[in-house]
Amino acid sequence: RASGIIDNAPDIQMQTETRERIISEARVIRAWAYLRLLMTYDNILLDSIPTTPQNAFDPVEYKPADRKDVFGFIDRDLDYAIKHLQYKVDPGIIGQALARQLRAESAMWQEDYATAAAHTDAIISNGQHKLVNISEVFGNNVNHSESLMAWQFDELSGGSATLAGGDGHVLGACFQARFYEISIPGDPVAPILEEASYGGNAYGWTYPNEYLRSLYDEDNDKRMQFYCYPDTLYGNNPASPYYEKKLPGDPPYSTQLRQYTWSLMKYRDLSKPAKRALSYKPFIAYRLADTYILGAEAHWRNGNSAKAMEYINAVRDRAGLEDITSVDLQTIMDEHARELCFEGKRWFFLKRIGKLVEQVNKYHRFGSTTSSIVGTTMKDHMVRWPIPQAQIDAMGTFPQNPEY
Q1: Among 12, 62, 301, 320, which has the highest number of CB atoms less than 10 A from its own CB?
Q2: Furthest CA-CA distance within the chain
């Protein structure tokens, strides 16, 4: 669809500036999609020809594109967009900062660290985007100056993927425990109700693990307070004797992980109905903290440790931590985890730096109860996903990724 806009916009009468902006937005979307496809599957089809009634059934040779060609395609789209987009845009609108962030990310995958550093520097020095107070990052309004791009939802005009407001999301429900299922011996009612302050209705599917927790300075890092729910819970059910009181005993309050475990608060929505998992709160796709951490790595790899520390310390200062005085890959990995956990970046980051299999096998854990937590085994070929069989069947000649 992006290719359709890019190809057809030149033939539509409109102001030149408007046309360039629309084409630029479409080229960012196309580049973003191709970058994610390449990072996920490695072997992908590169096709910029929009499907039309005239060509829908033309024969196509489906074969994996050369990696260098895909990156060249991505970079040309983003370079065009950077020339025509503004930094200051309305929420949900693609601006120059997002285009530069993606261009820096593409450069990192190509080991072009000077280019990556230049684009992150441009975003930071422009001043349109700034780090906000730690309490605001994932607060009620995420359309703030730190956000480079946030996906927008609107319940009034939404309700399904075919409507303008979209069909919402359940990120908050996925990443938090169902505290309202906790029962206390001797208490005839649940001490915690499905209220927004505790996330409301939850799925209890995925949680931060002890490895991530070990990276935080729990006494001083403000991210523990504003990115995650507290360990100690207080009753909010007026019918319970523990109303507004600390639940008895020490955490954990349940051996069932879906009922109680250390949970993520980044996607909490205080405005949604308490008993509904679906949320229409916007969520951030990229923010300036991403830029600082990516820029820190780019400068470090390019030999500028001073600039790398400056960028990492900007994020740490906001979290209330002391400045680092040296930097290496482990420093960058740890700060990346503390700041960007569960924002959809970690898997790709670890794959790019060649640490994905090692980290997963050392630290990934899963289970349904405190006594059933086990590790996992990731094999080297799993750094690229299997291509969906439906796509293989539809293309006919495209090979499956090795070892799947």
Answers
A1: 301
A2: 74
Distances (CA, A) of 203 to 168, 170, 270: 15, 9, 17
- Using an 8 Å Cβ cutoff, are 56 and 91 in contact? no
- End-to-end alpha carbon distance in the chain: 30
Claim: this prediction has a pTM higher than 0.85: yes
Helices (H), 221-304: 223-226, 288-301
Q: What one-letter code names the amino acid at 66?
A: D
pLDDT one digit per residue (tens) for the chain, 404 residues = 999 999 999 999 999 999 999 999 999 999 999 999 999 999 999 999 999 999 999 988 899 999 999 999 999 999 999 999 999 999 999 999 999 999 999 999 999 999 999 999 999 999 999 999 999 999 999 999 999 999 999 999 999 989 999 999 999 999 999 999 999 999 999 999 999 989 999 999 999 999 999 999 999 999 999 999 999 999 999 999 999 999 999 999 999 999 999 999 999 999 999 999 999 999 999 999 999 999 999 999 999 999 999 999 999 999 999 999 999 999 999 999 999 999 999 999 999 999 999 999 999 999 999 999 999 999 999 999 999 999 999 999 899 999 99
Tell me how far apart the alpha carbons of residues 9 and 25 are, in angstroms, rounded to a whole number: 12
Q: How many CB atoms lie within 10 A of CB 170?
A: 16
Give me the residues paired with residue 279 across strands: 169
Distance CA 376, CA 366 (A): 8
333: left (phi over 0), alpha (psi -120 to 50) or beta: alpha
Measured distance CA(370)–CA(102) in Å, rounded = 40
Backbone angles phi, psi at 150, to 5 degrees: -125, 135
Cα-to-chain-centroid distance, residue 194: 26
* Contact assessment for residue 165 and residue 154, using Cβ atoms and an 8 Å cutoff: yes
As given in the structure block, the two tokens for residue 112 are 């072009």
Task: State the virtual CA torsion across 260, 261, 266, 271 in degrees, nearest 10.
Answer: 10
Tokens representing 96 are 């120059």
Tokens 């000077």: give the residue: 114
Residue where the block lists tokens 């349109």: 128
